[in-house]
Automatic annotation (TrEMBL):
This is SET domain-containing protein SmydA-8-like. GO terms for molecular function: N-methyltransferase activity; protein methyltransferase activity; S-adenosylmethionine-dependent methyltransferase activity. Signal peptide: none annotated. Residues 9-253 form the SET domain. InterPro entries: SET_dom, SET_dom_sf, SET_SmydA-8.
Length: 510
C-alpha cells in the first residue's frame, strides 16, 4: 500500500497492485456525507448508441442536421448549444465530414457516433491541460487487455482512423492518444440519463477513483441540468456510516444480477475478477441470489462449489443428493431466462402482447419456480418490475386494487427490500424507490380493512404509522437527489405526502 497521494474531503487516495488507486475514509463518516461533487471532464453519447442530438443528447431520427457541420441535432436551437458548438462541430465543419444518414433511420446503433465522446475528451484535454494532467491522465486504460479484444480493431477503424484521416486531426491527436481516451472512457465512464431518458457517458475523474464492491458503501446521483445551469454534476455520498480507514466502494455492476453475471460483466468491461465477500460466498451473503433449486431431491439447493471460479461445478447441498451441474449449464439457464425477460420488457414476447405486462411476468415467475431459489436475483428483477407495475398499468390502478393485490405489491416490495438490506444497504436509490412503492399499498390496505371493520381506529393508527415510517425513509433517501431528476421529484412528493399522512394519523386516537 502506498502513502496517501491526495487528500480530498473525507477520503485519502492510496494505491496498490490489486486496485491501482483507491479511496479510503480519512475520518469516521456519517451516512449521507458528500465525498465528491464534480462536473464531468467530458460528456457525450455512449460508444454503442443510436443517433442522439449532439446538442441536448435526446434521441433523434437524424432528419434535422446542424447547419454548420451536418450532424444530427433536434433543431436550430440545439445546434447552438455549447456541448456541440464548442466541441466537434468545428472539427467536422473544417474537414467537411458530414453525417451519413442511415438508409433505415432508427435501425439500431450507429457506428458513426463512436468517435464523438473520445473527440470531446481530446478537445477538453486541449482546453484544460491542467485538469487533464492532474486528474484524467492518471486513470486506468487496461490497454494491454483491450488490445487483445476484437473491439480494438473496430476502435481503430471507427474512431482512430476516422478522426485522424477523415476529420484531419492527425497533427493534433496521435493514434496512442485516441486509444488512450477510448480506454479511459471504457474503464472509468459513468452512465447518466438525460432529461429525455437516453443514456449517455460522462467522465468524472474524482468519482472514478473509487474501487468496485458488489456491496457498495457509497451512492451517487447525476443531475443533467440544475437550476444554476450546470450540466451533469455528480454528487457521491456515503450510503451508510463508514469508519475511518475503510475503503470507499461504488458498484460497477447491477445490484440485482447474480454473481456469475456480475463477475462476467466486470471481467469483460472493467478487466478484473471481483473477489468481494458477496462474490466469494456461494449463498451471496445468505440472500441466495445465485441459488438454484434441485430437481432431484426435495429441499436441496444447488450452489457453486467455488463462485470465484466461473468454471467451477455446481452441487446440491441436499442430504444424500449427488446432483451436480456444470458451470456452462448454469450459464445457459441464466441466458435463456434473461432473454425471456428482455422479450417481455420490450413487448416482443407473445405473452406480453396477449396477456399484458403484469400477467406475462407473473407467468414467468411461476414458470421459474422449479428452477430457482425463490430469492434468486433474476426472480427479484421480475418482482422489481411487478412491484412497479401493480398500481400503474391499465387494469391495475392503485385505487382499484383489491386487498389481495395490495398484499401482493406489499409482499413484492418487502422481498426486494430484504435483499437490498444485505446487498445495497443504506441510502441507495433503488431502496428509496422501493420504499416509496411500498408505502401506498400499506396505506390503502389499512384503510380498506378499517372500512370493512377489520381494524379498530387504534389499529388503523398503528398501520398508518408504519407506512409513515416507510415513507419518511423513502423521503430521506430520495431528497438527496436533485429535485429536477425523476427520483428527486419522487422525493419531493414523498415529503409532501408525509405531511398529509401525519395529519391524518394525528386525527386518530392513540
Ligand atoms: C474506475 S477504475 C478505478 C480507479 C483506478 N483504480 C485508478 O487507479 O484510476 C476501475 C479499475 O480499477 C480496478 N479495480 C476497481 N475495483 C476493483 C476490485 N474490486 N478488484 C480489483 N480491481 C479493481 C480495476 O483495474 C478496474 O478496471
Amino acid at each position: 500500500m502506498g502513502s496517501p497521494a491526495t487528500t480530498a474531503q473525507g477520503f485519502d487516495v492510496l494505491s496498490n497492485d490489486k486496485y491501482g488507486r483507491y479511496a479510503v475514509a480519512s475520518k469516521d463518516l456519517p451516512a449521507g456525507e458528500v465525498l465528491v461533487s464534480e462536473l464531468p471532464f467530458a460528456v457525450g453519447p455512449k460508444l454503442d448508441t443510436y443517433p442522439l442530438c449532439l446538442g441536448c443528447l435526446a434521441p433523434v431520427d437524424a432528419s434535422a442536421l446542424c447547419s454548420a457541420c451536418g450532424w444530427p441535432v433536434c433543431d436550430a436551437d440545439c445546434e447552438k448549444l455549447a456541448l456541440h458548438a464548442d466541441n466537434e462541430c468545428a472539427v467536422f465543419k473544417a474537414a467537411g465530414v458530414r453525417f451519413a444518414v442511415p438508409a433505415e433511420p432508427g435501425a439500431g446503433t450507429c457506428p458513426q457516433y463512436e468517435c464523438i465522446t473520445p473527440l470531446r475528451v481530446l478537445l477538453a484535454k486541449e482546453k484544460d491541460p491542467a485538469r487533464w494532467d492532474k486528474e484524467v491522465k492518471l486513470l486506468m486504460t487496461h490497454s494491454d487487455k483491450r488490445k487483445a479484444n476484437p473491439q480494438w480493431g473496430a476502435n481503430q477503424v471507427n474512431v482512430v482512423d476516422f478522426l485522424r484521416k477523415k476529420c484531419k486531426v492527425e497533427s493534433r491527436f496521435s493514434e496512442e492518444a485516441i486509444h488512450e481516451v477510448i480506454g479511459i472512457l471504457e474503464v472509468n465512464g459513468y452512465e447518466a440519463r438525460t432529461p429525455s431518458g437516453s443514456m449517455v457517458l460522462c467522465l468524472y475523474p474524482q468519482a472514478a477513483i473509487m474501487a468496485h464492491n458488489c456491496v457498495p458503501n457509497t451512492v451517487h446521483c447525476i443531475t443533467p441540468t440544475n437550476q444554476g445551469g450546470e450540466r451533469y454534476r455528480i454528487v457521491v455520498r456515503t450510503a451508510a456510516a463508514v469508519a475511518k480507514g475503510s475503503m470507499l466502494y461504488t458498484s460497477y455492476a447491477h445490484t440485482l444480477d447474480p454473481t456469475m453475471l456480475r463477475r462476467e460483466h466486470l471481467q469483460l468491461s472493467k478487466f478484473f475478477d471481483c473477489d468481494c465477500a458477496r462474490c466469494a460466498d456461494p449463498t451471496e451473503l445468505g440472500t441466495h441470489m445465485s441459488s438454484l433449486k434441485c430437481t432431484k431431491c426435495d429441499n436441496g439447493i444447488i450452489l457453486s462449489t467455488n463462485p470465484l471460479d466461473q468454471g467451477a461445478e455446481w452441487k446440491c447441498n441436499g442430504y444424500n443428493c449427488s446432483n451436480t451441474l456444470r458451470a456452462d449449464q448454469v450459464r445457459r439457464v441464466l441466458g435463456v431466462v434473461q432473454a425471456e425477460q428482455e422479450a417481455v420488457d420490450q413487448f416482443e414476447s407473445g405473452d406480453a402482447l396477449a396477456l399484458g405486462p403484469v400477467e406475462a411476468r407473473e407467468k414467468l415467475l411461476k414458470q421459474y419456480k422449479t428452477v430457482f431459489h425463490p430469492r434468486h436475483a433474476l426472480l427479484l428483477q421480475l418482482k422489481h418490475s411487478l412491484a412497479q407495475l401493480y398500481g400503474r398499468v391499465e387494469g391495475y390502478a392503485l385505487d382499484d386494487l383489491p386487498d389481495i393485490l395490495l398484499e401482493r405489491k406489499i409482499e413484492l416490495c418487502r422481498e426486494i427490500l430484504a435483499a437490498l438490506d444485505v446487498v445495497a444497504p443504506g441510502m441507495s436509490r433503488i431502496r428509496g424507490l422501493t420504499l416509496y412503492e411500498l408505502h401506498v399499498p400499506m396505506i390503502l390496505h389499512a384503510r380498506s380493512h378499517f372500512q370493512t371493520d377489520q381494524l379498530t381506529e387504534v389499529q388503523l393508527r398503528q398501520d398508518l404509522s408504519a407506512a409513515a415510517k416507510v415513507l419518511a425513509e423513502a423521503a430521506d433517501i430520495l431528497c438527496l437527489e436533485d429535485p429536477t431528476t425523476p427520483e428527486g421529484s419522487v422525493g419531493v412528493m414523498a415529503k409532501e405526502s408525509l405531511i398529509q399522512l401525519q395529519a391524518s394519523i394525528d386525527s386518530l386516537p392513540l
